[in-house]
Structure prediction request, 752 residues.
Amino acid sequence: MRQESGDASLLRRLNSAAILRILRGGEVVTLTELARAARVSRPTAEGIVEDLLAKRWAEECEGESADRQRGRPARRFRFHGSAGHVIGVDVGGYKLLAVTADLNGRILATRRVTVSPDLPADERIAAVAALVEESVVDKEKLAAVAIGTTGVVDGAGRVVKSVAIPGWTGVDLQAGLAALLPVPVLVENDMRLAVLAEHWRGVAEGYRDVVYLFTGNRIGLGLLIGGRLHRGSHAASGEIGDQPSGYRLAFRNVIDYAMSADPGELRSPRQSAEFAVGRARAGDEEAARAVEAFAFRLAEGLVTIVNPLDPELVVVGGSLSQAGSLLVEPIQRHLNRVTLYPPEVVASRLGNESVALGAVRLALDHLDRTLFTPAS
Amino acid sequence: MRQESGDASLLRRLNSAAILRILRGGEVVTLTELARAARVSRPTAEGIVEDLLAKRWAEECEGESADRQRGRPARRFRFHGSAGHVIGVDVGGYKLLAVTADLNGRILATRRVTVSPDLPADERIAAVAALVEESVVDKEKLAAVAIGTTGVVDGAGRVVKSVAIPGWTGVDLQAGLAALLPVPVLVENDMRLAVLAEHWRGVAEGYRDVVYLFTGNRIGLGLLIGGRLHRGSHAASGEIGDQPSGYRLAFRNVIDYAMSADPGELRSPRQSAEFAVGRARAGDEEAARAVEAFAFRLAEGLVTIVNPLDPELVVVGGSLSQAGSLLVEPIQRHLNRVTLYPPEVVASRLGNESVALGAVRLALDHLDRTLFTPAS
DNA sequence: GTAAATATGAAAGACTCTTATATAAGCAGG
DNA sequence: CCTGCTTATATAAGAGTCTTTCATATTTAC
Prediction:
C-alpha cells in the first residue's frame, strides 16, 4: 500500500522527483525551463537543482551554450547519466550476453560468451558472475545487475520451472548471484524483458497494450498491459503450457519441410524454422508454404489472446523475428480476418540483444524506483 | 500524465485524501486513531476533519460511545455516506435493472422493468432515464449514474458494436443519457462491470488477477489485471469474437440435449443450457453429460487465456453461475489437468444483480476520483 | 475526593513554497 | 567605451502546512 500522507519534506521529495524526471528525459535544460516544466517557481527549481548537483545526480554544462539569445546566459544542466552503470544479462542455454549501459541507457559495452547447454547450474551462475565482472566499465559506478532467463521466474528471482536449460529448475538465481556480486541483482523471465525492451526502444515504443510473441525453440508470450509488464499471480504469465491451440502444432510444417528437403541434417524446431525461412527467401515455393503454415498456426494461437486482451500491437520477436514479413504478413492477414479489432503486427528489430536490453531497462527501472522516488 | 509537483496546498490535499480514504473504510474512528492511521500529527488530523465536517463529507457521531474506557471520551467521526447517492443500471435486451446506493455502497433501492428486445434505441434510452428517475431516493443527493450494457463500449460511452440488442450498434449512450439526466453519466461494458462487482463484494474480493467468464446467450470475459479493470485499446477486451476455440462450440451439446429431450420447445442457447442444468440437477444422466461437455468446452476456451495471463481466480458468472459446481467442478478439473498453475474456479454468488452492482461501484470509483483526490 | 488516563486546544518553531525586488551578465547601438 | 535593453540569478519577505510541546478538560478507578 502506498503511503498517501506526509509532512513538509514530502513536498521537497515530490518536487525533486519531478525535476529529476525531467532531467532524465535527456535534454539539457535551464533553470527557467525546468521550473516551467515541473510547475514550480524558479527559486524552488534552483534549490532542488543545487541538491541534485551536490548528490551528483545532475551536472552543469559549462561553456558552449547552444543558441545565443540576448540577455544573461542561463546556466544549463543535464542528468548525470554517467554517474552510474547497470548491466543486463541474457542467460540462455547456449550463450550468455551482457550489455553494460549508463543511467541514460547509453550502451557502453556488449560481451557474449558461449556455454555448454549441459553446464551445471552453479557453474552457469559462476559464468554469469564472471561475465558481469568482465563487463564492468567502472567498478565504482556499477549500481545494479538484471538477469533474464528462460522459464518461470518467481518474484524472488527463483527459477521455478525451466525446460530449456537442464538442471535450471529450482535454482535460486537471485540468491546465487547476489552472493557473488556486490550490487542489487534482479531476475526476470526473458520474454517479459524482451517486451520491456521493445517498449523502451523498439517497435512498441509508445504503445500501452502489447502482445509479444517470442519465437525460438519454444513459443511464449510477453504481455504489456496498461503500459506495465504483466507478471501473473505465479509469475508465470506468458507461458503457453500444453494448450491445444495453434502453438503446439506450429512447428510441424517447417519440421516436415526441413526433413524432406534436407534429410541428412538433424534440426531443432527453431533450426527447422530458420532453415525453411532461408529457403523461402531464396525462392523455394514449398518452403514458403511451410513458413506460411507456420505463421498461420502462430496466428491461430494469437487469436485466443488478442481477442480478449484487445492489444494495439503484436510484436513478433525471438530468433524468428528475422523472418520479417514472411511471418508478419500472414499473421496480420489471419488476425484481420478473425479478430474484432485487429492489432498491428510487426517484427522486432532489436535482434538477439532484446532480452539483455530489457534487462538493462529493468535495472534502470529498479534504480528509478529506489533512488529517485521516495527517500532520495 | 499525472501532476508530480505542487505547492504547499498539495500537502493538505494529500493528507485530506488520506484521511478521507480511511473514513471511507466505513469505521467510526476518533481523531487519535485517524492521526495514527494516516501517519499525521493529531492537530493536522483535527484540522482536516474540521474541513471535512464543513464540507459535509464527514459527520460526528453524537452520544453512544461504544466501549467506555477511562479518560476523556474522544469525539468520534465517520464518513457521511448518506451525503450522496449513485445509481447503477444494467441495460439488457429484455430487462433494465437499477440499483440505488449511497456513498458507503449501501443498497437503498432496486427496481427492475422488462422491455421488449425490439425497443428502438432512443426509446430504450428514454426507458433507462425514466427508470433512473423512479429509482432516485433523494433528488438532491444523486451524484452519478453508471450504465452497463452488452457489446463493445468505447471510452466515450458509445456502443460501438452490439449483437445482443438490435439497433444498439452505433448508439451514443453516454450523450443520449447525459442529455436526459442532470448528473454525470458513465457507460461501460457489462462483463467488465460484473468483474468489478465480484472484486468489490463478491467471490473475487482481495484478488488482483481475475478472469471472469460471463455466460448467458453469449460468452465473454471480464479481466481484472493487477487489481485494475482491463479495457483494451479499443475498449473491446473480453470479446471472444469468432475464435476457433472451445467457446464457439460450447453450447452445442446442451442445445442438442434440449432438442432431443424436449423437442417441442424452441430455446435460446442460454435457455438450453439452463434446461440441461435443471434436468441434470434432477438426476438426468444424459443432461449431466451434456452439461459436463458444455463445461469442458468452456474450460478449453479458458485455458487459452488462463495460461498466458496466470490469474489467481476464475469466476463463472452470468446466468449460468446458478449451475454452481455442475459447471465449476469440471472446469476446475480440466484447468488442473492442462494449465501450469491452475487458478481457483468459483461460481459467482451475486446473481443477476452483478452488472448493476458493478455499475454502482464504477460510479463510486468515479466520485472517488473526481471528488476526493486532487482538488476537493 | 484524588490520581491516572485520555482527549482537546493553543502556541511556538521548522520546512517548503511563492511572489517581489534587487543585482549580474551579456548584446546592440551610439 | 558607455548606456540601455534583455534575460538570468540572488535575496528577502510572506504565506501555508506540518510537527512538537505544553496547558487544560473530562472521565474512570480507587
Q: What stands out?
A: Chain B has a mean pLDDT of 83. The two ends of chain B are 19 Å apart (CA to CA). Chain B touches chain A through 58 residues (CB under 8 Å). The longest strand of chain B covers residues 95-102.
